[in-house]
Design a protein that fits this description.
By secondary structure, this protein is mainly alpha-helical. The protein has nine helices and five strands, in the order ααβαββααααββαα. The protein has a three-stranded antiparallel beta sheet with strand order 1-3-2, covered by helices on one side. Strands 4-5 form a two-stranded antiparallel sheet. Helix 6 packs across helix 7. The chain is elongated.
């Protein structure tokens, strides 16, 4: 009986020591402090959301505002603001290279930014609609000119004036018109008679005959007694 009672007493939990009591007290204080911080953060989130809801509502009601830029804020705040904007039916984007400088811009749906405008903000530049419009027009003009050049095909060299108009006062309108029909555009040499282009051998023969006649005439002139006194 005595042995049974002793085993029961030994198995019972011993009273806590002074060290155990101090550890439990610190643990309770830490848990209370943590709960207090969580409640404080929760209140801050609620207050921040209410403030953002108020600013977004004022932005919607202001008909003169198309977009609004907020100050740099942390990731949690940006997340809350994006959620508020989405609920309000607006568009929002975050910009900034590093976490400390990132900020949010919101836009009304009817004034949603273009890709060019978003790219400007991502580069850290201010958006200038007038310069962007000028750039767009220049781009369209260059594209239109390129398309027209492609439709025209290779460039052709044309004479400065119309053949039949230039020589009609000398050979008559009908003759000039007929002569104009015998011409063919040539990119390197302007206009030459078609017959000349087709029969180059006859031209060479004619030129040789002319040279031969010139040589014959020179030899006759150089012969003593050939000229009259």
């Amino acid at each position: 009986m005595a042995d049974l009672l002793g085993s029961i007493l030994s198995s019972m939990e011993r009273p806590p020591t002074v060290g155990d009591q101090e550890s439990r007290r610190k643990a309770r204080e830490h848990a209370a402090k943590l709960k207090k911080m969580q409640e404080h953060e929760k209140r801050q989130k609620v207050e921040f959301r209410k403030r953002m809801e108020k600013e977004v509502t004022e932005f919607i009601q202001d008909t003169g505002q198309m977009k609004k830029k907020f100050c740099a804020m942390g990731k949690l705040e940006r997340s809350i603001l994006h959620d508020v904007v989405e609920v309000a039916g607006l568009a929002s984007f975050s910009f900034g290279d590093d976490e400390e400088s990132r900020y949010v811009m919101i836009f009304k749906k009817e004034f949603a930014p273009s890709d060019e405008e978003l790219e400007a903000y991502r580069r850290g530049e201010e958006w200038d609609p007038q310069k962007a419009e000028e750039k767009r027009k220049l781009k369209e003009l260059a594209q239109r000119e390129a398309e027209e050049d492609a439709m025209r095909g290779p460039a052709m060299v044309n004479p400065n004036s119309n053949y039949k108009d230039k020589y009609s006062h000398l050979i008559g309108k009908e003759a000039a018109k007929d002569a104009a029909h015998t011409l063919q555009a040539n990119k390197a040499y302007g206009c030459v008679p078609v017959a000349n282009k087709r029969d180059t051998r006859s031209i060479e023969v004619a030129m040789n005959e002319i040279r031969a006649k010139k040589r014959l005439k020179q030899s006759e002139d150089d012969t003593p007694g050939s000229s009259s006194s």
